[in-house]
Each structure stands twice: as C-alpha cells, then as structure tokens.
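Feature request, filed as a ticket because there's no other form

It would be nice if the structure record came with a short human-readable summary line next to the tokens. Right now we just get the raw output. Example of a typical job, pasted below so the devs can see what we mean:
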Amino acid sequence: MSITYIKALLIEDNEEHIELIVDLLYSSNLVKVDIEVADTFQKARELIAQKRFDIILSDLTLPDSEYNETLPKLRNIISNAPIVVLTALDDSETIHGMIKAGANDCVPKNQLSTVTMERAIIYTLDRHDKELAIKRSEEKFKRYFEKSNAGLVVSDLTGNIIDANPAFCRFTGYDRNELIAKNHNDIIYKDDREKSGKAIALLLEYPNTVSTLEKRYVTNKGELVWGEGNIQIIPWGDNKERLFEEVIDITERKSYEIELDKHRQNLEDQVKERTSKLTLTIKSLKESEGELKKTYDQLIHAEKLSAVGKLSASIAHEFNNPICGIRNVLESVEEGSFDSASNGFKEKMVKMAIKECNRMADLIRKLQNFHRPSSDGAVLMNLREAIEDMILMCQKQLKAQKIEIETKFPGYIPKITAVPDQIRQVILNLVQNAGDAMQSPGGKVTIQISSNAANVYLIIKDTGIGIPKQNISSIFEPFFSTKQEAKGTGLGLPICHGIIRRHGGDIKVESLEGQGTTFTITLPIKGVL
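Raw output as currently delivered:
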C-alpha cells in the first residue's frame, strides 16, 4: 500500500493526549504526518487562517470553547479540510450526532492506537476527496443545466417532469413550475407520442444507449415547435434513475425542409415531364447522329479520293514503267528473238517481268485498301508500315519536284490501336501538304517517330514557305485554305484533326513564315475508339 503524506492540525489541550497522538502518528508506516498543535480554539483559528491543512484532528472540550460549540465553530472557519473528532465518549448515538453536526469521522480516545488513527485518517481523506469530486461534478452540472443554450429536461421513468432549464422553458413557453406539474406527454404533439414512447422503451431495455429523435412539442400558446432530442438514462440526486433529454429547437430548419420537400416534388414532376420530352429528343438526335456519321464518313471518303486523285499522274507513271518493261519482254517473245537468247538472259527477263507484276499488284492492293470507305474498325496497326505505304504512293510526285524525303525511325515502334485507313489518310494529307508548301523545286520533308509508355509521336516537318502567323489558329477550320482554288478544298486538315481527336490523340502545328512547318501528332498506344 502506498504511503499517504499529509499536513495535520491537532487541537488538544491535554498534554498526555497530545504526546500519545503524536507518537502514534509518527510511528505509522502508512501515514506520514507533518503535524502542528493548538491547545486552544483561538490558536487553532490563527493557524487555520495562516496555513493550509489536509485534516483537522480535534478534541471538542477546550479552554476557550465548550463541547457543543467547538465543532460548529470549526466548520464555520474550515471549508475544505475534513475534521476527525477525538472524543472521550464512546457510544454510537454521540458519534452519530457528531457526524450529523459536521464531523467526517470520530475516534474514541479509549481506542487510540496507530491502527485506529491510520484507518480514521485514510478513510476520512478518501471519503472527503470523493465528496469533493461529487460536489464539483454537481456544481458543474448545475451550471451547465442553467446556462445551456439547449433545452434540458429531467423526468422520471414514467415521464413526469422533475426539472427543466431556462432554455427548455423558453422553447415551450412554460415556466419551470408549470412544467414540473406536467407529464412529458402533455407537451408532445399527439401524433409524435407513439414514437417517443418507443424510444423510451428502447432505453429502458438498453439503458447505456442514447436515443435521438425529432418530435413536435405543443407550446403554452398551442403552437407546434420542432425539437431534436437526445434522451438517455442517468443517475439523479435521490439515487434513482431519471430520463435526461437535451432538446435543440429545429423549428426553423424543419420549415425549410418542408419547403424544400415541396420544391423537390415540384422539381421531380418537372424532371419527369422534361425527361419524357428529352427521351423523344434523344431519339431524334440519335437518328440525326446516324445521318451525321454517314455524312462524316462520306466526307472522309471523298477527301480520301481527292487525295488519290491528286496523285493520279504519279500513280499512272508508277504503273507505266513496269508495264513498258513487261511489254518489251512479251514483244521479244512474239518476234521470236527471245528464242535465240541464252537461258540466263531468258530467266533474268522473266524474273524481271514477274517482279514488276508483283509491284503493280502490291500498289493496286494498297490503293484498294486505302480508297474503300472506312470501316471504323480499330485494330493493332504498324505505323511505320503505314508511313512507308503512303510515301510509296506520293514519292514519284515529290521526286518530280526534287523534294527529298527523310525518315527517322527508332529500332522499336510499338503498334497502336487505330483505324488503319484513317491514319494513312492523315499521313498522306500531311505529306502532300508538305510537298505543296515547296513553291519552287527542291526542299526536304522529314518524317520522324518517337514513343513513350503511353503514346506514339509522329512528326512531319517541311522546309516550305510556312504559314502566316495570323492563319495558324484557323488552319483546322473547315473550308479555310491558303492554297490556290484548284489545289485544295479546305477540308484536308479539319478532317485530319477530327480523325486524330476521335482516336484520343492530338495534332499541333508550329510554323515560321519562310522557314517551314512542323506537324506533331500524338496517338495513344491503346487507343480510345
């Protein structure tokens, strides 16, 4: 057990008793006492005024104080320290009377010992501390009860009101005495009494819980007010359980909620009506969207055919050369001169004719794949292969203009998810535009590919005349063109822009007048179509 350290005042005029009590206290192993002695009430008064003591040990018969006067006078000058009376009397009635008069404990002098003194001091201090804690708690609760802005009401378990604070009185319009004469149900609106009763029944079944509910109260003027209450069961001063409820006035909030409910219902009705109309509109829009998509696909196809048409002379030349070679072989066969040629020459010429046939077949296949209407089917495609195909289709035209084509491809290019013929159309259009930007023979078109974990980047750069600064922001607008009327429709770049954006990518342009133009296309590897 821990040692208790205290400062005590012993009020005693008998020297033998003083010596005995001091010796008993000093010999204790449980209580260590710093003790001062007063042999008169006046001296005790002076010491109490000057110093703080944890406990008072007092005889009641003193030279300047009678037996029945000492305890009341001590209580009058001591507010916090407990008092243990040392008495020569040893009967329960006397001891009970002393306790009732203000003593915290009594020790008969004929029972003085170290044990009895230890027990009296430790018991008294412990009980005194608990009483002080209870008193402080009660005072704190009383201040809270009286000053709280929330309405507080205490009832017995049957609903009879025991107390109510000023805030609850203001809330209901009744004064405290009027409320104490009522049962809680008397001030609850009749339609809300059942749910209030159920909440209390639940508390009685589960007493350590808190019940929260909203209910209406009837004021002293017969008006309805809304309160949100937290109800719980608590111990009360008479050692009985009570219902304690904290009520917040939510009348204004409920009026807003009721208005909101009306507006909400009105809005729901409007939404239903507009949803019905919107459904019809959506149906019409879907039909229009189908027509728009059909028109858009036709526009893409038309622009594609326009691009091929611009290459017609170049493509005709690509076919003309191999046809001439094959014709020469066939004419040699027809004239008989082929018969006299060596076997090595014959084999070489036949292989050349077959190679040229294969080249024409490959070119025809590329044209067929490119010119047919787009399927909108996204597949994994090889971007490098698509670029090389489009270069093949327009390289004759570019070479005729003495335009150099340079490609910069890394060792590995990830495949992208895209619509192949649409991406080819973008590449062809930009390469043709780069060729058109060279207004005099010569120049260079550079095609470069790079990538990261998410995107592939295609850069097409030319050394042409560039785009005037004031036109940069307009080049992706439909029918805007800086070309001569016969050379452009004004739809090529807008269609390219639309195709790239539909693929989840982006197309940007940088240009300096007289120095060339660079288009940078960003395409997601996974695609979004």
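Something like this underneath would help us a lot:
The mean pLDDT is 82.
The first helix runs from residue 15 to 26.
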